Amino acid sequence: MTRFIVVLALLIFGSTGGEIAITYGMKATGEPERLRPKELLQFLARALCNAWFWVGAPLMALAFYALLVLLSWEPISLVIPASALSYVVGTLGAKYILGEQVSTARWAGVVLVCLGVALVAKG
Amino acid sequence: MTLERRLRVKTLFMVLLMVVCANVGDLMLKRGMSRIGEVQPSLAGLARAFPLTVSNGSIWIGIFFLSGFMLSYMTVLSWADYSYVMPAGAFGYAILTLLAVVFLHESVSPRRWIGVVLICVGVLLVGQLNREPHR
Q1: Interface test with B, best of A68, A88, A92, A104 (most B CBs within 10 A)
Q2: How far is A64 from chain B (nearest CA, A)?
Q3: Which end of chain B has fewer CB atoms < 10 Å from its terminal CB, N or C?
């Protein structure tokens, strides 16, 4: 159980940290003008030149390997629902790092996700 | 079509693509890791598992779909807020659990299903604000 919690924490903080960093990077990059190969490649090149992308990508790689390790141990019907805790961490990150407003309803959602994960973990 | 409506259809399409890619990707990863077996949580164990994961076909198919997920996710994040995109996968948890039962023959207890439903509702609630995609 301890090893599951430790690797789950790596998965959640890696993916949430990575997503927040890449969000910063993508906002700076802007959106591709059209969904055509040339524009998409230019968009990709611009994204790869952004430092935030290079903060986010290694974090996501770490999260990916943590996911593989978890999947080797436990059924996917435990691993993926438990990874929903990333919404809890994501909401905290949205409020305290990205400075977004968080309503009471969203905090209620955070509580429900925590309860749900607790029930899923009990099997 | 108005600009706002086009943006919404575009966002919806990308979100749908995200959910399909994420679910198929995760199921393929699980299939691959089931064949590889338990990874020992030590440096030696991780070193032993690494070549097995990179030479596993199911893992690569999973990576292919998850790349599709990442690409659609990154693209949609460039025009919609993180807090708007984040809840879109709410029902993905229920869908994935159902797929795990049907295709991987995992047994899911009623208590675990209640947990999954709570997670879906919770994730939807987390997305209460910022419903409109905006720049």
Answers
A1: A68
A2: 10
A3: N
Q: How far is CA B67 from CA A14, B14, B23, in A?
A: 17, 13, 12
B75 and A90: CB-CB below 8 Å? no
Interface pTM, i.e. ipTM: 0.80
Residue A73 confidence (pLDDT): 96
Q: In B28-54, which positions are buried (b, 16+ CB within 10 angstroms) versus exposed (e)?
A: bbbbbbeebeebeeeeeeeeebeebbe
**The pLDDT of residue B88 is above 90:** no
Measured between CA atoms, the residue of chain B closest to residue A23 is B77
CB contact under 8 A, B41 and A68: no
A31:B75 CB<8 A? yes
Residues of A in contact with B33 (CB under 8 A): 68, 71-72
The tens digit of pLDDT for each residue in B41-83 reads 888 998 999 999 999 999 999 999 999 988 888 788 788 776 6
Taking CA atoms, A80 is separated from A75, A88, A121, B21, B49, in Å, by 9, 14, 11, 14, 21
pLDDT at B1: 64
Q: Does pTM top 0.90 for this prediction?
A: no
